[in-house]
C-alpha cells in the first residue's frame, strides 16, 4: 500500500510522518524531494527566487522518477507499507501555482499529464488542512513556496485535486493542537491500512 501525507508547509505533515515511523516500524518511510542528487538539485532551486518554474518542474519530475524506481516500486513489490512525506499531489499543487503566471495553459492538467505516463498513484492520501496564513506563520516563510499569497494558490489546487478524487483523500483538521492532529492521523492510517488489508493487495 502506498500512503502519502500532503498539505501546505507548516501543516504539521512532517511531524505526523515522524510519529507514524514509531507506530509502523516495519514500513518503508520516504519523502519528496528525496535525499538523492536529484533531490539536492530541487532543494537548490527552492532558494532561487528567479528559478525558471518550468525548469524547476522538471527537476521535481526527475526526482520523482528516481524515487519510484529506487524506493517506492521495490518496496511495494516486497509487500511493504510505503509512507511518503509529499508525493505527486505536492507537485500538482505547488508547481501548478508556480506556473500560474506563465504562458502555459492549464498547468495543473499539464503536470498531471506528464506524470500519468509513468507514476504510481497513491492508494490513500492524508491531507492536513490548514489555512495559508497559519501555514506561512508556522513555516516561517523561509523560501518562496512558504509565503501566504502563494500558499493560497496551492491550497486552491489541493482542493481541486480532492474534488476530483474524494475517495482517495482523508482530510485532517491541522489547525488543532499537535496532539489532536497526530491522534487523528494515526487513527486514519490505522483504518486505511486495515481496509487495504481486507481488499485488493495488488501493488500496481
UniProtKB/TrEMBL annotation:
SUPFAM superfamilies: P-loop containing nucleoside triphosphate hydrolases. Keywords: ATP-binding, Kinase, Nucleotide biosynthesis, Nucleotide-binding, Transferase. ATP binds at residues 7-14. Signal peptide: none annotated. It catalyses: dTMP + ATP = dTDP + ADP. One of its GO terms (biological process) is dUDP biosynthetic process. Coiled coil: none annotated. Belongs to the thymidylate kinase family. PANTHER family: THYMIDYLATE KINASE, UMP-CMP KINASE 2, MITOCHONDRIAL. This is Probable thymidylate kinase. It comes from Halobaculum saliterrae. The lineage of its organism: Archaea, Methanobacteriati, Methanobacteriota, Stenosarchaea group, Halobacteria.
Amino acid at each position: 500500500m502506498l500512503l502519502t501525507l500532503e498539505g501546505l508547509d507548516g501543516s504539521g505533515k512532517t511531524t505526523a510522518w515522524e510519529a507514524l515511523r514509531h507506530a509502523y516500524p516495519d514500513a518503508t518511510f520516504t519523502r519528496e524531494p528525496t535525499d538523492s542528487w536529484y533531490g539536492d538539485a530541487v532543494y537548490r532551486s527552492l532558494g532561487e527566487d528567479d528559478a525558471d518554474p518550468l525548469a524547476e518542474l522538471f527537476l521535481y519530475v526527475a526526482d520523482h522518477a528516481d524515487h519510484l524506481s529506487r524506493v517506492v516500486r521495490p518496496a511495494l513489490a516486497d509487500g511493504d507499507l510505503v509512507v511518503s512525506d509529499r508525493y505527486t499531489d505536492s507537485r500538482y499543487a505547488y508547481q501548478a501555482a508556480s506556473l500560474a503566471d506563465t504562458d502555459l495553459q492549464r498547468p495543473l492538467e499539464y503536470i498531471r499529464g506528464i506524470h500519468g505516463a509513468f507514476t504510481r498513484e497513491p492508494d490513500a492520501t492524508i491531507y492536513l488542512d490548514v489555512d495559508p496564513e497559519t501555514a506561512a506563520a508556522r513555516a516561517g516563510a523561509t523560501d518562496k513556496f512558504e509565503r501566504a499569497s502563494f500558499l493560497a494558490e496551492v491550497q486552491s489546487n489541493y482542493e481541486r485535486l480532492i474534488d476530483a478524487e474524494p475517495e482517495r483523500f482523508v482530510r485532517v483538521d491541522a489547525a488543532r493542537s499537535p496532539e489532536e492532529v497526530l491522534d487523528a492521523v494515526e487513527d486514519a492510517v490505522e483504518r486505511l491500512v486495515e481496509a487495504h488489508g481486507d481488499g485488493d493487495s495488488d501493488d500496481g
